[in-house]
Design a protein that fits this description.
mainly alpha; elongated; membrane; CLS_N; transmembrane helix; PLD nuclease N-terminal domain-containing protein; transmembrane
């Protein structure tokens, strides 16, 4: 069981790193980070589906 907790922690840390290095606004970064810290597993799943993508901003 401990290995599953460690995997969950690593996934949450990966998601937090990606949020902080994304091109999202500061408010969005704070919101995602708080969500990932408070609910790491659920937060990771939601982030994987709907989180900010990449570090590039495309402007037209």
């Amino acid at each position: 069981m401990e290995i599953l907790g460690l995997i969950g922690l690593l996934l949450a840390l990966y998601a937090i790193y990606n949020v902080l290095t994304s091109g999202a606004s500061t408010g969005a970064k704070i919101g995602w980070t708080i969500g990932l810290v408070l609910l790491p597993i659920l937060g990771f799943i939601v982030w994987a589906i709907a989180g900010p993508r990449g570090g590039k901003r495309v402007t037209a």
